[in-house]
Structure to design on (212 residues):
């Protein structure tokens, strides 16, 4: 007579405990955690990594179940940061967008061709679970000072409104301010007093600071 003998199978993967929630920026720990989860696979209860490791601790509190999905795809996030040329520190991410890309001359209405860049900024805001977002508008020195100040304020507000209306980000996240021509990053004129179009182009900008 044949007997059926129950057999238990244990699937053991590399320990995910290498990742320390209190030290999420350790590159070696991040790599080991990602490798371990990839080996385990979603069908055996692994997390699907769709966010940066530093978001793992907080995001996992908000979701549950097999195949846990986190905040944002890490590859898309890294690509967005690179495409925008963003400057990243431990406390904030700074993005500078040319006003010539965002707006037509002397206007404060977002152009359709600017949507792709703004969507990438929105991805960063969500993925990094931003605390606050500051939007500053700047102009070159052409025209009246008061007019330039007003235009820069309208442009900063237009960017905020785009995020609220198109990406459904809460308006309370944002603070806006216009600086007009007061904070140039390049000379508006050449040493001989002639016009400097390249410098003026750099000064016409919107800066977005994402506090993380």
């Amino acid at each position: 007579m044949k007997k059926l003998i129950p057999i238990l199978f244990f699937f053991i993967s590399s320990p995910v405990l290498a990742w320390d929630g209190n030290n999420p920026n350790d590159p070696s720990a991040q790599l080991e955690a990602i490798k371990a989860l990839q080996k385990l696979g979603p069908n055996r209860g692994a997390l699907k990594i769709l966010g940066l490791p530093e978001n793992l601790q907080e995001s996992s509190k908000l979701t549950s179940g097999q195949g846990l999905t986190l905040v944002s795809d890490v590859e898309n996030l890294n690509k967005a940061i690179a495409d925008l040329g963003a400057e990243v520190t431990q406390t904030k991410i700074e993005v500078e967008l040319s006003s010539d890309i965002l707006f037509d001359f002397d206007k404060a209405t977002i152009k359709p061709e600017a949507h792709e860049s703004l969507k990438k900024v929105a991805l960063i805001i969500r993925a990094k679970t931003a605390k606050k977002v500051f939007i500053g508008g700047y102009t070159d020195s052409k025209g009246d000072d008061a007019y330039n100040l007003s235009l820069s304020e309208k442009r900063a507000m237009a960017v905020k409104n785009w995020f609220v209306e198109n990406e459904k980000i809460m308006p309370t996240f944002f603070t806006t301010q216009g600086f007009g021509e007061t904070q140039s990053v390049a000379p508006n004129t050449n040493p001989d007093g002639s016009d400097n179009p390249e410098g003026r182009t750099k000064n016409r900008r919107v800066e977005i600071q994402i506090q993380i």
